[in-house]
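ok here's Hybrid sensor histidine kinase/response regulator, seq below lol
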Amino acid sequence: MHSKGRILLIDDNPKNLQVLANLLNSNQYKVEVGVNGLDVFNWIDHEYFDLLLLDIMMPDINGFEVCKKIRSNKRFDNLPIIFISAKSDTLSMVEGFKLGGQDYITKPFNPSELLARVETHIALKKSKEELRSMNDTLEYKIKERTKELFTANQKLTELTETKDQFLKFISKEISSPLESIIKVIEVIKQSSESSKMAEMITLLDQSVLKLDRITKMASYITKIKTKYDSDQSTVFSILSTLDYILVNVSQELDKKNLEIDLDIDKNFRVNGNNELFKTSVLAILTVILQYIDNNQLIRIHSKLDNSSSNLIIESIINEETVSGTYIHEEVSLYTTYSQTIMALEGGSFSFSNENENKYEFIWTYKK
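and the structure came out like this:
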């Protein structure tokens, strides 16, 4: 027959022990008995119980003292104790609860009431044990998963560092010979008289320039990923920094006869990494300068309100003139690296191409 629980019954009156034991046994409980308070410790030190039914008035050590000693040992925190006693005064009941008892039943007791209370406290105990077991299992799984994620993150970090080192190496190794090739092509272009040769040189020139641009892009991305240091944050003016950036791309702007419409609020100041900001904006302009037609306008403006400030770089690029190129892929690649652009507090970066050939790069700074 399935047992509903294991109960330790302590009472110095043999008749009471017999009556209680018979009642509990007939209701599918397994019962062990003791005739004094010291018997409790002989049992619970070596055996498992779901409930302790404890008389109060006993020789040697009374029920209150037994309860107090049990509650001093964390091993038995989850063992429910029901006092069963002829003492029906309020002070005794309050004392029993203060010492850690879960319930108090007075003699003579009602069998149905006693069984109901026993069943309730054993059910509560088992529910607590199941919950504790579930928590332990969940905690173990979380620890194991954390270890797995930590290991995976370490491997990912190592791969990222290796990739960045490779990217930096390639950029450095390609840049120098590219500069030499570009200079040679410029000399050949000026001295070539054959239209066929001029066409071939133009094709070669375009390929080399594209390779040069990609090399610069790799360099920008590497800097964005490696230059971030929160300790380098400082308050700087967006307008002053943009003036510096535009000087650095002035030759490229002149080659295509591009006009810059710079409309930046002089009060647009942020707290962040100025060098990283320069690198990020230079990378954006590198994409635009590659694909924008000659004689076009690049608009750089700001939009400030009470909660945030926006820096918007927009241009019109006719995609029909750049068929076969990968502007979307290149922009997506860059924006992926720039989601944490400039690592400024509350900053975010987005790219928009909703209006046909109009491209917008928007950086938002939360105040």
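fwiw The first helix runs from residue 14 to 25. kinda neat tbh
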